[in-house]
Design goal:
The complex is a heterodimer of chains A (325) and B (334). By secondary structure, chain A is of the alpha/beta class. Chain A has helices at 57-64, 87-93, 114-124, 130-143, 160-172, 190-207, 218-224, 242-247, 252-260, 268-271, and strands spanning 8-18, 30-41, 46-50, 72-77, 80-81, 97-100, 178-182, 210-214, 227-232, 235-241, 312-313, 319-320. Chain B is globular. The chains are: A alpha/beta (325), B alpha/beta (334).
Chain lengths: 325, 334
Amino acid sequence: MSDNSKNLIVKDLKVHFGGGKKILSGKKPTVHAVDGVSFTIPAGKTFGVVGESGSGKTTTALAIMRLVDITAGTVTLGDTEISALEKDALRAARRRFQIIFQDPYSSLDPRKRAGEIVRQPLDLMSIGTPSERAEAVTALFEQVGLRPEQQHLFPHQFSGGQRQRIGLARALSTRPDLIVCDEPVSALDVAIQAQILNLMSNLQQELGLTYLFISHDLGVVQHICDEIAVMYLGQIVEQADRVTLFKNPKHPYTKALLEAVPSVHNNKRNRQERVRLVGDPPSPINLPTACRFASRCPRAEARCHQEIPPLEENTSGHKVACFFA
Amino acid sequence: MSTDATPPLLSVKDLVVDFKTRAGNARVLDHVSLDISAGKILGIVGESGCGKSMTALSIMGLVPNPPGRITSGSISLDGRELTGLDEETLCEIRGTEIGMIFQEPMTSLNPVFTVGEQIAESVRVHENAGKQAAMARAVEMLKAVDIPEPDIRARAYPHQLSGGMRQRVMIAMALACRPRLLIADEPTTALDATVQAQIFDLLQELQQDTGTAIVLITHDMGAIAELADDVAVMYAGSIVEKGPVGDVLSQPCHPYTQGLITCVPHLVPDPPLQREALREIPGMVPALTNLGAGCAFEPRCEKAFDQCTGAKPELIKVSASQLGACWALESDQR
C-alpha cells in the first residue's frame, strides 16, 4: 500500500500569531502556536497528534490545510509542495487534501441540502459532467452508510453521527489522498463514535487514504493510529509507533497524559497511587529557552531549566525530547 | 443499592417526568428509582438524551415547567419530600442541602463579578453572613479546592482563570454552604485529560474529608470505574441496570451496558499488533415521543427476541445488589 509519491512530509513547520506593531508603542506579543514540527506520514497510514488544548495540534492541522498562514517550514504531499502554492494552483491542489471537523453541527451549511453539500466540492473543482456528479454523490452517500434518498434533507434533520458521515462524504468527494481529521469523534456519543471510527478504518482500506488524526482521546488514538506524536506547547516531545508509545512511553509528559486517562481497568484504590501533573501549561507567548515542560515536570533538574532538550531518535524510530529518556 | 441498614440520604422513587412537545408527550424519565447514602458516590451513565441530566434537574427542582412536569414519584432528602415544595423553600435547599456543578464552567459563572464575590454571595444568602465573613469564607473555599494564592484569585474575574480553575471555583461555590449532596453534571467534559484527573482527585478528596454524597453524571465509563461506588445506566429515560461499580463493569447484565463498555476503545498499556474493528451499538437513540410498548433498546439490541417488543421489562435482581431490566434476564431466572 505504501506509495512514496503520496507521502505527507512536514518539515520544521512554524506558525506564529501576532508580533505586529502596536498602535502606540512597542510590539504585540508573538504566540508560538506551532514551533518547529517535523513528521512524515507514509501513504495509506494514520498519524495521530495528541496533546492538551493549546498544544498546537489544531493549528498544525490548519497549517497543513493552508487555512492559517505558515510562518516557516514546508509541507509536501507527494511531489507537490503545498506550502509554496498560491491562489489558483493552491485551489486546484486542494482536491488532494481535505478536512473533517470536530463539530458536525457548525461545519455543515444549514441552508443547503445534504446532497448539495457533498456535491459542492465537485462543482467548485469542475470534476466530471453534471450527471456524473449526481451519480458520484449517490455513490458517496452509500459509501458512508447513508441512504441516497437522504440527499434531499437538510442538516438539522440528521443526528450528530449522520452529520459526521455527511462531512466525511464531502471530504471524500474529490478523491483526496490525505484527509485531515480534527477531533472527528469528540462531539459524538460513545456508541456513535464506534460507528464512525469503524467507517473511517474501512474507507482507509478501500481507498488507501492517508489520515492525519488530531485527538485528545488517547484510547481512540491508540485504536486508530499507526504512529503517534505527542505535542506540548507547539513542539513534538515524543513520537513512536502505536505499540511502542503506549508500552514504553519515555517523556514525562507522555507518561502523565497516559496516567490521567480514567480507565475501566482501574478502581478507586489504584487511582490514588498515580503521579499527577500540577498546574496548567505556561503561556505560549513568553517561552523559556529551556525544556518547555520543565515547570510542570516531576523529574526536572537544573539542566532542564537551562538547555533545550533536542528531539532524538533511537534505532527503532522512537523519538523523545528529554534529557532523561 | 447500599446494603447497610442506614436509610439513604437521597431517595428517588418511581420518578416520572413528562415533557409536552409538538410531536406529542415525551416521557423523559420513566419510573426512575435511585438511592444514595451519605459519603458515597453514585455514577449515572448513558448517551445524550437518556435522562441523566434531567434526573439531576429533577432532584434540584429545576425541571423547566412548562413544558416539563414531574408527573408522579417522590424525591426525598433525608426523609423530607422535595417534590411539590414551593420555590422559596427549594431555594433554601439548593445550596445549603444540595449543591450542583455544571458542565460548562465558563457559562455558569457570572462574567461581571469576581469569583470571590460569587462564592461569597451564596454564603451571604444562605447563612446570613456579613460581607467580610462571607468573603473570608470564599477565600477559605478557594484554598480548599487547591487554588494557589486564594486571596489574590478571589479578586479575579472568570475570564482571567483557566478552564480547570473555573471548574474549581464552581466546586468551591457548590460546597461553600457545606451541602450534604453534590450533583456533578459532566464536570470535566470541557477539560483536558490532565486537568480532568486533577478535578476528579479534588472531588474524591473533598468527599472523603466532608462526607458529602456525590451524584456524578458522565458518559465516561472510565470515570465511573475510578470514582463511583455505585452506578446506574440509563437508556431512553429508564434505568436499565444498576449496582456496585465493580459488579456492573465486570459482569454487565444488560446488553446496553455491555455495548457501552465494549464500543469504547480503551487505553491499554500493551496494545495488540492486530487491530479489530470496534464493536458497535447499531442505530441510534429513539425519539422519546414514540417509544412503543416494548423495550426501548430492542431495535438496537442484537439479543432481542419476540418478547422484547411486547412489553417493557422491569428492573429485576440478578445478584444480591445488581439489577437489570431485560427480558433475557427474566427468562434466565425462570
